[in-house]
């Protein structure tokens, strides 16, 4: 991390948590920042490396059961992500990454395992797998509107008093059939897996706004087209 | 046929009539329906049909159909081969393949990754041939770590001789569960699903391709006796020969498939030099790699279903002046989730003319825009060719990369070219 003025995007453990095009979130944040003249620096942190504490936006992706457990163990042992979050950094986590930044999550036999503990949620395993397109209305306080994505998980998540639901589920399962995702300060998690930010440009801009303040508007492009197209498909 | 018990004979005959009906009515090639009917009548039919043969089972995420075809081509040296060359790779398809050719002693069956353990138990094959495992259609497929574990356990209980790619850590770990193995250095371009040790989860040390080892538990790439040298297009044999490959199927992925096929054929007693001669006769596999000429332009059809496959296809594209069409659908056979498009690096396409097609072309459009690749959106292949010819009347070649149903739609439009 040499450039002190650049927006520092830190992708946590692409070797363990990168299952569904999770790279897309890092790429779209970089693009939407740079289109506005904000320089960025992206760092890939592998599971054998320490997590740097001076990042702006930390990204965690999805993973299979075993890599998820390994990632949680390594993040807890390292401590860097928890220190960054305590400092006020933004964390955006999807799917398996969402579960492990919570207080606890369930392994493949539903035993509770400790999470990183930076988001007040507790996850376990549901009776059935949630697979398919999902549509949800984001908490109006965040100014994001309706989001769409693809979910593929067996987790069910309960939100504790310190966190708020990210959104209300319109189609799909999300946390529990009623709400989808959670946030607490600038720590935000969702079951919309993989390229959740490319599919929802407003959500990407929320994270950027948290870090750099008000943003110049961008001319609508393919991201907005895709968002509208998937919204229409998701509501059919 | 006469060696099968009566009930199995009946099941086999019924299955074949159903398959014939399916073909006659133009509903399919008959491989799935035939097997389904037969299985209803005789649940142990697969085991009975397999008895007394020397079978090779072929499984992987990518290259199953092609490698099955290559091995069958080599084994025809000895006469008839029972094989599911239309890619019906579940037990119903295996039953049809074996029923259709009951006199063949040798057989090669392509097996869906998930079904490998049960087909292994049912057929007791002489060889199990394994090439690669990577992320693929994850809304309906199994997690690959889990898959590798199931392979490993099933191989540990069988007497089959494994022929496997040592350069893919997940495949090697599964194959190491077998009592006997022949290891091939067949390469691995896509590494994003194998940074972690399959045994203990440690971060693998992969400093010098193709070697890998786990610094935490010591698991390491097994020593190989066969190898591909992509740069010089050579197959290295256990006897130390360097044989020119000169395949008529393009790319490193097919060099890998050919090497695996040669190692398997050697297990049946065919000399690799002879095998390679036979493999060169294969120019397309179920329409893949074939070209159709339309409006005076040669369109080469490349089927790629997942990130590893797209990476391999990018590597075989013609020189940059050749335009490329990318076509993506998200129907059930494709996987309904297009997230995988974000795992592929498209920056290699920056210097050529690119068209996007298919039901999910908007996903592709955003993906290319994000990678700074110029592109045009189109509905159909002939529309693309019309636009190209308007700008460049002497254009002769176009490459087309499509995922499963997009590929089938285009192939059907040109008369199910083989």
TrEMBL record, chain A:
Pathway membership, UniProt: Cell wall biogenesis; peptidoglycan biosynthesis
Subunit structure: Forms a heterodimer with MurT.
Protein name: Lipid II isoglutaminyl synthase (glutamine-hydrolyzing) subunit GatD
EC number: 6.3.5.13, 3.5.1.2
Active site: 95, 193
Role of this protein: The lipid II isoglutaminyl synthase complex catalyzes the formation of alpha-D-isoglutamine in the cell wall lipid II stem peptide. The GatD subunit catalyzes the hydrolysis of glutamine to glutamate and ammonia. The resulting ammonia molecule is channeled to the active site of MurT.
GO function terms (MF aspect): carbon-nitrogen ligase activity on lipid II; glutaminase activity; transferase activity
Key words of the record: Cell shape, Cell wall biogenesis/degradation, Glutamine amidotransferase, Hydrolase, Ligase, Peptidoglycan synthesis, Transferase
InterPro entries: Class_I_gatase-like (IPR029062), CobQ_GATase1 (IPR033949), GATase_3 (IPR011698), Lipid_II_synth_GatD (IPR043702)
CDD domains recorded: GATase1_CobQ
Organism ancestry: Bacteria, Bacillati, Actinomycetota, Actinomycetes, Streptosporangiales
One Gene Ontology term from the biological process aspect of the record: regulation of cell shape
Occurrences of domain CobB/CobQ-like glutamine amidotransferase (ranges): 8-200
PANTHER family found in the cross-reference section: DETHIOBIOTIN SYNTHETASE, LIPID II ISOGLUTAMINYL SYNTHASE (GLUTAMINE-HYDROLYZING) SUBUNIT GATD
Pfam families: GATase_3
Family the entry assigns: Belongs to the CobB/CobQ family. GatD subfamily.
Catalytically driven reaction(s): L-glutamine + H2O = L-glutamate + NH4(+); beta-D-GlcNAc-(1->4)-Mur2Ac(oyl-L-Ala-gamma-D-Glu-L-Lys-D-Ala-D-Ala)-di-trans,octa-cis-undecaprenyl diphosphate + L-glutamine + ATP + H2O = beta-D-GlcNAc-(1->4)-Mur2Ac(oyl-L-Ala-D-isoglutaminyl-L-Lys-D-Ala-D-Ala)-di-trans,octa-cis-undecaprenyl diphosphate + L-glutamate + ADP + phosphate + H(+)
Residues bound to substrate: 129
Superkingdom of origin: Bacteria
Automatic annotation (TrEMBL), chain B:
InterPro entries the record matches: Lipid_II_synth_MurT, Mur-like_cat_sf, Mur_ligase_cen, MurT_C
Origin species: Nocardiopsis sinuspersici
Boundaries of every Lipid II isoglutaminyl synthase (glutamine-hydrolyzing) subunit MurT C-terminal domain copy: 303-407
Protein name per UniProt: Lipid II isoglutaminyl synthase (glutamine-hydrolyzing) subunit MurT
Alphabetically ordered keywords of this record: ATP-binding, Cell shape, Cell wall biogenesis/degradation, Ligase, Metal-binding, Nucleotide-binding, Peptidoglycan synthesis, Zinc
Record's keyword annotation contains Ribosomal protein: no
GO MF annotation terms: acid-amino acid ligase activity; ATP binding; carbon-nitrogen ligase activity on lipid II; zinc ion binding
Family, as annotated: Belongs to the MurCDEF family. MurT subfamily.
Listed pathway(s): Cell wall biogenesis; peptidoglycan biosynthesis
BP GO terms, sorted: cell wall organization; peptidoglycan biosynthetic process; regulation of cell shape
Residues annotated for Zn(2+) binding in this entry: 197, 200, 214, 217
Assembly, per entry: Forms a heterodimer with GatD.
All copies of domain Mur ligase central, residue ranges: 61-170
Uppermost EC category: ligase
Gene3D superfamilies on file: Mur-like, catalytic domain
EC number annotated for this UniProt entry: 6.3.5.13
A Pfam match: Mur_ligase_M
Active site: 337
Reaction equation(s) it catalyzes: beta-D-GlcNAc-(1->4)-Mur2Ac(oyl-L-Ala-gamma-D-O-P-Glu-L-Lys-D-Ala-D-Ala)-di-trans,octa-cis-undecaprenyl diphosphate + NH4(+) = beta-D-GlcNAc-(1->4)-Mur2Ac(oyl-L-Ala-D-isoglutaminyl-L-Lys-D-Ala-D-Ala)-di-trans,octa-cis-undecaprenyl diphosphate + phosphate + H(+); beta-D-GlcNAc-(1->4)-Mur2Ac(oyl-L-Ala-gamma-D-Glu-L-Lys-D-Ala-D-Ala)-di-trans,octa-cis-undecaprenyl diphosphate + L-glutamine + ATP + H2O = beta-D-GlcNAc-(1->4)-Mur2Ac(oyl-L-Ala-D-isoglutaminyl-L-Lys-D-Ala-D-Ala)-di-trans,octa-cis-undecaprenyl diphosphate + L-glutamate + ADP + phosphate + H(+); beta-D-GlcNAc-(1->4)-Mur2Ac(oyl-L-Ala-gamma-D-Glu-L-Lys-D-Ala-D-Ala)-di-trans,octa-cis-undecaprenyl diphosphate + ATP = beta-D-GlcNAc-(1->4)-Mur2Ac(oyl-L-Ala-gamma-D-O-P-Glu-L-Lys-D-Ala-D-Ala)-di-trans,octa-cis-undecaprenyl diphosphate + ADP
């Amino acid at each position: 991390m040499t450039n002190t003025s650049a927006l520092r995007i830190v992708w946590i453990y692409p070797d363990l948590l990168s299952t569904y095009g999770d790279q897309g979130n890092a790429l779209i944040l970089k693009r939407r920042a740079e289109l506005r003249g904000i320089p960025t620096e992206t760092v890939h942190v592998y599971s054998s490396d320490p997590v740097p504490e001076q990042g702006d936006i930390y990204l965690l992706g999805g993973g299979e059961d075993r890599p998820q457990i390994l990632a949680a163990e390594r993040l807890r042992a390292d401590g860097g992500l928890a220190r960054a979050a305590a400092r006020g950094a933004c964390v955006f986590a999807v799917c398996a990454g969402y579960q492990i930044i919570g207080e606890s999550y369930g392994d493949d036999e539903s035993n509770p395992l400790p999470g990183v503990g930076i988001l007040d949620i507790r996850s376990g395993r549901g009776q059935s797998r949630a697979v398919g397109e999902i549509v949800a209305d984001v908490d109006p306080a965040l100014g994001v509107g309706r989001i769409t994505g693809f979910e593929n998980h067996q987790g069910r998540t309960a939100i504790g008093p310190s966190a708020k639901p990210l959104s209300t589920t319109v189609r799909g399962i999300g946390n529990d059939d009623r709400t989808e995702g959670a946030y607490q300060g600038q720590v935000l998690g969702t079951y919309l897996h993989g390229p959740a930010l490319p599919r929802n440009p407003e959500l990407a801009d929320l994270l950027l706004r948290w870090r750099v303040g008000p943003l110049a508007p961008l001319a609508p492009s393919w991201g907005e087209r895709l968002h509208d197209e998937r919204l229409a498909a998701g509501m059919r | 046929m006469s060696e099968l018990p009566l009930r199995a004979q009946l099941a086999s005959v019924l299955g074949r009539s159903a398959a014939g009906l399916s073909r006659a009515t133009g509903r399919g090639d008959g491989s799935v329906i035939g097997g389904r009917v037969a299985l209803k009548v005789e649940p142990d039919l697969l085991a009975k049909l397999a008895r007394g043969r020397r079978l090779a089972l072929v499984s992987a995420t990518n290259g199953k159909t092609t490698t099955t075809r290559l091995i069958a081509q080599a084994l025809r040296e000895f006469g008839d081969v029972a094989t599911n060359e239309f890619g019906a790779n579940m037990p119903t398809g295996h039953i049809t393949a074996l029923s259709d050719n009951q006199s063949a002693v040798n057989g090669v069956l392509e097996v869906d990754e998930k079904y490998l353990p049960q087909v292994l138990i049912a057929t007791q094959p002489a060889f199990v041939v394994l090439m690669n495992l990577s992320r693929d259609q994850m809304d309906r497929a199994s997690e690959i770590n889990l898959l590798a574990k199931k392979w490993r356990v099933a191989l540990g209980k069988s007497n089959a001789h494994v022929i496997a790619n040592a350069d893919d850590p997940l495949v090697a770990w599964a194959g190491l569960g077998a009592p006997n193995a022949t290891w091939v250095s067949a390469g691995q371009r896509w590494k994003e699903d194998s940074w972690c040790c399959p045994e203990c989860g440690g971060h693998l040390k992969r400093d010098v391709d193709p070697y890998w080892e786990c610094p935490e538990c010591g698991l390491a790439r097994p020593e190989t006796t066969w190898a591909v040298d992509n740069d010089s297009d050579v197959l290295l044999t256990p006897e130390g020969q360097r044989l020119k490959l000169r395949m008529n199927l393009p790319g490193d992925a097919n060099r890998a498939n050919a090497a695996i096929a040669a190692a398997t054929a050697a297990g049946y007693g065919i000399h690799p030099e002879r095998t390679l001669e036979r493999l060169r006769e294969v120019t397309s596999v179920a329409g893949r790699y074939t070209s159709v000429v339309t409006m005076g332009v040669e369109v080469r059809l490349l089927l790629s279903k997942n990130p590893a496959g797209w990476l391999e296809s990018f590597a075989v594209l013609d020189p940059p002046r050749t335009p490329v069409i990318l076509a993506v659908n998200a129907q059930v056979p494709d996987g309904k989730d297009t997230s995988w498009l974000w795992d592929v690096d498209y920056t290699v396409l920056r210097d050529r003319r690119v068209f996007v097609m298919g039901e999910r072309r908007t996903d592709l459009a955003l993906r290319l825009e994000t990678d700074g690749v110029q592109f045009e959106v189109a509905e159909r292949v002939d529309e693309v060719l019309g636009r190209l010819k308007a700008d460049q009347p002497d254009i002769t070649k176009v490459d087309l990369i499509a995922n499963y149903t997009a590929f089938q739609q285009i192939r059907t439009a040109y008369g199910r070219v083989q």
